[in-house]
Automatic annotation (TrEMBL):
Catalytic activity: [thioredoxin]-disulfide + sulfite + adenosine 3',5'-bisphosphate + 2 H(+) = [thioredoxin]-dithiol + 3'-phosphoadenylyl sulfate
Gene Ontology terms, MF aspect: phosphoadenylyl-sulfate reductase (thioredoxin) activity
Known pathway: Sulfur metabolism; hydrogen sulfide biosynthesis; sulfite from sulfate: step 3/3
Transmembrane annotation, as ranges: none
Name of the molecule in the record: phosphoadenylyl-sulfate reductase (thioredoxin)
Length: 286
C-alpha cells in the first residue's frame, strides 16, 4: 500500500479487499473525533470496528488500566481482548509475579513470546553473548522485542493492537494520536493517550487493579532490569528507561529504526517474490 494514498493492515482477501483500511482523511477525521472521547468509549469503538484486535502489554500501569476497563465494559458484544506479552527473558521478578496475578484475576488469554530459540536468560546469553544490550543495543532490541512482536503479529494474525502509550510520558510520545498506523501497516490505538500519570494511578487505586510492586520503589515505567531505574522527582515517567542515553523507544514503536526499515524491506521482497511466482504461473498456464 502506498503510504501517500492511505493505510492498510493485513493481507488482501480473496475478493481483493484489504481487511482494514484507512485513507489519510479518514484517519485524520477519526482521530479528531476519538480525541474527545473517554478511554472506555474509545475501547468500545475499537471492539466494534477493528478485527484482529489484541492488547500488547508489558503490564505497565496504563496497560493495566486498559485491561481493567475492558473487563468492565457494559456492551452487547465480546469485550475480552487477548494479551500479547513479550518476555525478553530479562524482566524483573516483580514483573513476572504481576503477570501471574493478572492472569488469575482477569482470565484473559496471555500469549507469551520470547526471543527465538531461547527459553531462559542463560540460553539467551549462550546464543547471543554476554550483555548484548551493551554491545549492540539495536540488535538486542531486535532479537528480544521486535522479532518476537512481528512473530506474534504474524502467527496470531493481528491487525490492530491496543498500547499503553500516553503523551504525558514524554520523549517521542508527546504528539501521539489516538490511532496510528506504522510503516508495516499495523494499526496502533492509544486509548489513554490523553491521560496523565496521576489520572492513571488514581484509577488503579480506585479500582484495586493489581500493579507492579516496583512502582512503590520509585519506578514509573518498568522494562528490562538492565535498563530501568527509579525516576527522580521532577523527571518524566520514562526518564528511568535507558538513563543517560539518547533513547526513548525500544524499536517496536520507533518507525525509523533500522530494524523497522529492515522488516519493511523484507516485506517488499516477499511481495515481489509472490508477484514473480504468480506471473510464472500465468506464463506456464498460458
Amino acid at each position: 500500500m502506498d503510504v501517500e494514498s492511505g493505510y492498510a493492515s493485513g493481507a488482501s482477501s480473496e475478493s481483493g479487499l484489504s481487511e482494514v483500511y484507512f485513507t489519510r482523511p479518514h484517519l485524520k477525521y477519526l482521530n479528531s473525533q476519538l480525541q474527545n472521547l473517554e478511554p472506555q468509549d474509545i475501547l468500545r469503538w475499537c471492539i466494534i470496528s477493528l478485527p484482529g484486535l489484541y492488547q500488547t502489554t508489558a503490564f505497565g500501569l496504563t496497560g493495566l488500566v486498559t485491561l481493567d476497563m475492558l473487563s468492565k465494559l457494559e456492551a452487547p458484544f465480546k469485550s475480552s481482548v487477548d494479551l500479547i506479552f513479550l518476555d525478553t527473558l530479562h524482566h524483573f521478578d516483580e514483573t513476572l509475579d504481576l503477570v501471574d496475578r493478572v492472569r488469575k484475576q482477569y482470565k484473559n488469554t496471555i500469549h507469551v513470546y520470547k526471543p527465538a530459540g531461547t527459553e531462559t536468560a542463560a540460553e539467551f546469553t549462550a546464543k547471543h553473548g554476554q550483555k548484548l544490550w551493551e554491545k549492540n543495543e539495536d540488535l538486542y532490541d531486535y532479537v528480544a522485542k521486535v522479532e518476537p512482536a512481528q512473530r506474534a503479529y504474524s502467527e496470531l494474525q493481528v491487525k490492530a493492537v491496543l498500547t499503553g502509550r500516553r503523551r504525558s510520558q514524554g520523549g517521542k510520545r508527546g504528539d501521539l494520536d489516538i490511532i496510528e498506523v506504522d510503516d508495516t501497516g499495523m494499526i496502533k490505538i492509544n486509548p489513554l493517550a490523553n491521560w496523565s500519570f496521576p489520572q492513571v494511578k488514581e484509577y488503579i487505586d480506585a479500582n484495586n487493579v493489581p500493579y507492579n510492586e516496583l512502582l512503590n520503589r520509585g519506578y514509573k515505567s518498568v522494562g528490562d532490569w538492565h535498563s530501568t531505574q527509579p525516576v527522580a522527582q521532577g523527571e518524566d515517567e520514562r526518564s528511568g528507561r535507558w538513563k543517560g542515553r539518547a533513547k526513548t523507544e525500544c524499536g517496536i514503536h520507533n518507525p525509523k529504526s533500522k530494524y523497522a526499515q529492515f522488516l519493511r524491506q523484507q516485506e517488499l521482497k516477499r511481495q515481489e517474490e509472490e508477484l514473480s511466482q504468480a506471473l510464472q504461473k500465468v506464463t506456464v498456464e498460458a
